[in-house]
Amino acid sequence: MPALVLLGAQWGDEGKGKATDLLGGSVDYVVRYQGGNNAGHTVVVGDQKYALHLLPSGILSPGCTPVIGNGVVVDPSVLLSELSGLNERGVDTSKLLISGNAHIITPYNVTVDKVTERFLGKRKIGTTGRGIGPTYADKINRVGIRVQDLYDESILTQKVEAALDVKNQVLTKLFNRRAIAVDQVVEELLDYAEKIKPYVADTVLILNQALDDDKVVLFEGGQGTLLDIDHGTYPFVTSSNPTAGGACTGAGVGPTKISRVIGILKAYTTRVGSGPFPTELFDEDGEALRRIGGERGVTTGRDRRCGWFDAVIARYATRVNGLTDFFLTKLDVLTGWEQIPVCVAYEIDGERVEELPYSQTDFHHAKPVYEYLPGWQEDITKAKTFADLPKNAQGYVKALEDMSGAPISAIGVGPGRDETIEINSFL
Ligand code: GDP
Ligand code: IMO
Ligand code: MG
Questions:
Q1: Ligand 2: which of 10, 231, 238 to mutate, most ligand atoms within 8 Å of CB?
Q2: Residue 18, annotated ligand binder?
Q3: Which atom of ligand 2 is closest in space to residue 35's alpha carbon?
Q4: Which architecture does CATH list for 103-198?
């Protein structure tokens, strides 16, 4: 059965873009199922580097049809500029399909995101400021604008009016901002509508027919398990479901169709924005991980917070996603340490805890319990097979696999497509 989900097992930026691109040549469809242009997925092809925010990473594989599913939130201005940026670099984007049920990030959603964060002050989430949370809030409040609404001016005007009725009260009276004019928003959206029209399709029907025809479909998650609105470190999360179930709701494909769920797992841990992070480092090791790993946000340019590998989180990701495999990335970044600490459990208020606590308070109190694994000094970026890795690097991978609860089927030893050790085939 040819439907695979590929998702982040930590707090995002695990290397999903590279992993998706790697499989892109062998699959028929790559589908984004949640999130929006808060994502920043880096793909390196030869000497070319691409940063994708909204488009599925499969867009770089000529044989593959990229799909933006109903669960995604679409900022039309970002979509169009990302498409033209790729076209200028010679990438054919004409096969793109966008669900008519995907929700639109309107200019007022972006404004609300920014002013809300400012209003929260110290308690801010540290969002990407792209309007993600407010757009999903409108969707749940049933005042959202969908892609299909762009094609009926009267309906669009009514919907924008309904959304702005309340928002303008909040913007003017609470946030002391100017009201947003309905006409101006409608005009802007109508301008995008025509440009997007060729891509709009019934993606649910197309994907289900493709699966019936034994085509291979890859669902590409944005963000990561610990940023999931239901299963992450709420409230320091994004406003969608990057976890495996999100692929079903965000693409309209039943769970019985999914055959494999691959968790992308960085060999250490990073996080962007606010929220608890038990293995975070504030010393020179954290600085070294940031420098060697190039840990700077693709979307916002913020420095990523860095820390050691956390096996409690990896086990949790295995459980809530039903992971069948891991793709371990950035092992090369750990070259050069004499020994590498790995968090195997937490100590919470004096007690050893093996699994992620469900209580936010407990998680905030969690201190990492470390085991120290022997490091390696050899360059591993040219390794092609597991046997090419130095003994201690092999030991590190095996230890992470044992702790995390699913087989590690591929290992990244560099950002390029070919800098990958394949252990078990994903297809
Ligand atoms: P994503 O959001 O999960 O797609 O990840 P990002 O693109 O935000 O961040 C991952 C970064 O690590 C990118 O710069 C990738 O090019 C890079 N990368 C991915 N896999 C590897 C790897 O195995 N080794 C190294 N050194 N870099 C990698
Ligand atoms: P990729 O797909 C890392 C974080 C933000 C913030 C929180 C909420 O590249 O892994 P939002 O704008 O979504 O409302 O912000 O989520 N965040 C990410 N962190 N990688 C991402 O995407 C992220 N997308 C959102 O930093 O803490
Ligand atoms: Mg990223």
A1: 238
A2: yes
A3: 13
A4: Orthogonal Bundle (1.10)
For 3-91+202-422, which CATH superfamily applies? Adenylosuccinate Synthetase, subunit A, domain 3 (3.90.170.10)
pLDDT tens column, 333-359:
999 999 999 999 999 999 999 999 999
CB neighbourhood size of 175 (10 A):
16
Which residues of the chain fall short of a pLDDT of 50?
A: none
| 414 CA to centre of ligand 1 in angstroms | 8
**Rounded to two decimals, what is the model's pTM?**
0.98
Q: Which ranges in the chain are annotated with CATH 3.90.170.10?
A: 3-91+202-422
Name the E strands within 100-236. 103-104, 200-201, 217-220
Cα 210 vs. chain centroid, distance in angstroms?
A: 24
Count CB neighbours of 407 within 10 A. Answer: 12
Tell me which of 327, 329, 413 to substitute to probe ligand 1's pocket, judged by most ligand atoms within 8 Å of the beta carbon. 329
Residue 374's CB is within 10 A of a number of other CB atoms, namely: 14
Amino acid identity at 376 = W
Q: What is the pLDDT of residue 2?
A: 87
* CA-20 nearest atom, ligand 1: 4
Percent of the chain with pLDDT over 70: 100
Q: Say whether 208 counts as a known binding-site residue.
A: no
